[in-house]
Amino acid sequence: MLTAIFSYGQKYALIKMSSIEPIKFADLITNKDIRDQRFPIETESLDSVIIVLHAIKNRFEEARQATPSPMYEYKIGILTFQGSSTRMAYGVRMAVTMTTEVDGKHFGNYLCKSSSSNNDNIKKIERLIDLLSKEK
């Protein structure tokens, strides 16, 4: 029995985390993409990534409590989100890293840094959710 498998669209959504630019979709990650610091996410995982981003945003909203939450991790395909919290003088701050490996190349980036306020990090997550939602 023969089965035809069709794939629509590109394999990766390449996101530039340092600025909100349109997402670049591609089947391959080029050296230019790496130099431009574009972070790859599998396009088939975009819906799951949006769900996890909402969960991370909720953790930031809960971080206004005085107690740091334990480290956490979300895995979606080849993508991993890792979060941690730190007690600061005026409350709890959180950091979230994203890592992935594509074709033997390791990519890592901060989604949010603890040096930024939780409110600023929430806004950054919301912008990313909006950007990904528009591209679905």
Architecture overview:
With 136 residues, the protein is α+β, with helices and mostly antiparallel strands. The chain has a single domain, classed as Secreted effector protein pipB2 fold (2-Layer Sandwich). The chain is 29% helix and 35% strand. The protein has three helices and seven strands; from the N terminus they run ββαβαββββα. The protein has helices spanning 31-35, 46-62, 118-135; strands at 12-16, 24-26, 38-42, 72-76, 79-88, 91-102, 105-112. The strands form two sheets. The chain has a four-stranded antiparallel β-sheet with strand order 4-5-6-7. It has a three-stranded antiparallel β-sheet with strand order 2-1-3. A hairpin with a 2-residue loop joins strand 5 (79-88) and strand 6. The N and C termini lie far apart (33 Å).
SS summary, helix count: 3
Please report the total strand number as a whole number: 7
- Rg from C-alpha positions? 16 Å
Average of pLDDT? 85
Query: Uncertain regions: pLDDT < 50 for 5+ in a row?
Result: 1-8
CATH architecture assignment name: 2-Layer Sandwich
Characterize the largest beta sheet: strand count, sense, and whether it forms a barrel: 4 strands, antiparallel
Q: In CATH terms, what is the fold-level topology?
A: Secreted effector protein pipB2 fold
What is the terminal-to-terminal distance? 33 Å
Which geometry do the CA atoms define?
A: elongated
**Helicity, as a percent range:** 25-40%
CATH class group: Alpha Beta
Compute the number of structural domains: 1
Class computed from helices, strands and strand pairing? alpha+beta
